[in-house]
Write a structure and sequence with these properties.
Layout lengths: L7 H4 L5 E6 L3 H12 L4 E7 L5 H8 L3 E5 L7 H11 L4 E6 L4 H9 L4 E4 L4 H12 L4 E2 L1 H9 L7 H11 L4 H8 L3 H14 L5 H10 L4
Parallel strand pairs: 1-2, 1-3, 3-4, 4-5, 5-6
Helix pairs in contact: 3-4, 5-7, 8-10, 8-11, 9-10
Length: 216
């Protein structure tokens, strides 16, 4: 009975696919490592928990495919994928997400990420998607692609997104100004602009709207 995985005899003479995993949740990272290691044609060459470790680890281990959680401490998965493309073009990136946020998909596709799937996909599906990405094919979960195609465009500028994100994390206006190296007045202007663009009633409402739309 065929289980959907490559036959060991068939892959024995083929080049194995070197995979780097980036996932901050220890249990998920360990489970993915263990399950994907059972695939006869996949080698897990590294598993990291922090976004800032992705690029230096990839440069050291030379993976064919980097499987990256989109939400990581430090550098996020999309930013890491962009850096990988610049510094290690032979490595293709496959992003994992637990939430279907259209803006993330659009940003990933704009960055030429070749794979974007849901984190709750079956392991066999993930393994096959890794193979497809390694062959140079693009793999995007249909639900994520539909969400990106039907959602409204993000009206916020990158600076407005940064200001809203920090505000959502509890930073005061002065804290935001200090972190972004801008004046308090400029922070207030960005917040007012974000409220107007999202047609919100307040800063809190603007954060809610932007979060639900996947813009933060």
């Amino acid at each position: 009975m065929h289980d959907g995985r490559p036959d060991r005899d068939r892959v024995e003479g083929d080049a194995r696919i070197r995979v780097l995993l980036a996932e901050d949740a220890p249990l998920i990272r360990q489970a993915l490592t263990a399950l994907l290691s059972q695939e006869p044609d996949l080698d897990i060459v590294a598993a990291v928990e922090h976004g800032d470790l992705i690029v230096p680890t990839a440069l050291r281990t030379r993976p064919d495919v980097a499987v990256l959680d989109i939400h990581l401490p430090g550098m996020d998965g999309i930013t890491a994928a962009v850096e990988l493309q610049a510094k290690l073009p032979s490595c293709r990136s496959l992003l994992l997400t637990s939430v279907a946020r259209p803006e993330h998909v659009r940003r990933a596709l704009t960055a030429r990420v070749v794979g974007f799937i849901r984190k709750d996909a079956p392991t066999a599906r993930l393994a096959e998607d890794i193979r497809q990405v390694a062959r140079g094919h693009r793999v995007v979960d249909p639900e994520l692609a539909l969400a990106a195609a039907t959602a409204s465009e993000n009206p916020l500028t990158p600076r407005e997104v940064s200001v809203l994100r920090l505000t959502a994390q509890g930073a005061s206006t002065r804290d935001v100004a200090a972190q972004l190296y801008i004046s308090v007045g400029t922070v207030r202007n960005h917040l007012a602009s974000a409220v107007a663009k999202t047609q919100a009633r307040s800063r809190v409402d603007a954060i809610r709207i932007a979060t639900e739309a996947g813009w933060l």
